[in-house]
Amino acid sequence: MFEQVKLAYAVDALEPHIDKETVETHHGKHHATYTTNLNNFAEKAGVADMDIEELLASLDTIEDPALRTAIRNNGGGFYNHNLYFSTISPNGGGEPEGKLLAKINETFGSFAQLKEKLTALAIGQFGSGWAWLETDADGTLSVSNSLNQDNPISLGTGKKPIVAIDVWEHAYYLKYKNLRAEYIKELFELIDWKLVAEKYEAITTA
């Protein structure tokens, strides 16, 4: 059974960057619905015992096209939101340190330049979708964006995301309305780079 990540902070703890009502709606309703739907569809497809990353990487093995699409959408929504909510916190902001920062500097030139690239991808994503900081198993970093609930795993890129920027309107519209860029700017005040670095280490040392 796939389990929705529990918030490690109170629903109002991300204010003023993200308001309480958005967290309650985004996590408590949207994410919860993705989780429920995924479990239902995965059970029908006989894949409920699979790891979510394994499942998203092998969608083509699901023969029923309707179930495949449903699991792609709801499985992506489940995985993407688990990452999103588990890498932001009231203790976020600032810059990464250590190995991750060194790799960011090597790859993008500086942390500021990484922020610029991620922000541009997030703003430039037409309609609903995501922007990602992702890594190969060998630690090579890159950035990308994707439509709807797709992610680097379901797209078969061989990369795993370590930062997720949600640009579906339900992630920001209650507070920021159509000002997506302002939401993204404020979201960087919540990205917890210590938690991101832990994910980076786990992937690159597995």
What does it look like?
By secondary structure, the protein is mostly helical. It has two domains: 20-86, Fe,Mn superoxide dismutase (SOD) domain (Helix Hairpins, Orthogonal Bundle), CATH 1.10.287; 98-204, Iron/manganese superoxide dismutase, C-terminal domain (minor pseudopilin epsh fold), CATH 3.55.40.20. 50% of the residues lie in helices and 10% in strands. The chain contains eight helices and three strands. It has helices spanning 20-45, 52-57, 65-86, 98-108, 111-124, 173-176, 180-187, 193-204; strands at residues 129-135, 141-147, 160-166. A three-stranded antiparallel beta sheet has the order 2-1-3. Strand 1 and strand 2 (141-147) form a beta hairpin. Helix 1 (20-45) runs antiparallel to helix 3. The longest helix has 26 residues, at 20-45. The chain is globular, with a radius of gyration of 16 Å. The relative contact order is 0.16.
Give the arrangement of secondary structure elements.
Blueprint (H helix, E strand, L loop, with lengths): L19 H26 L6 H6 L7 H22 L11 H11 L2 H14 L4 E7 L5 E7 L12 E7 L6 H4 L3 H8 L5 H12 L2
Antiparallel strand pairs: 1-2, 1-3
Helix pairs in contact: 1-3
Number of strand elements: 3
Q: In the CATH hierarchy, what is the architecture of the largest domain at level 2? A: 3-Layer(bab) Sandwich
Amount of helix? 40-55%
Mean pLDDT across residues: 97
- N to C succession of SSEs: HHHHHEEEHHH
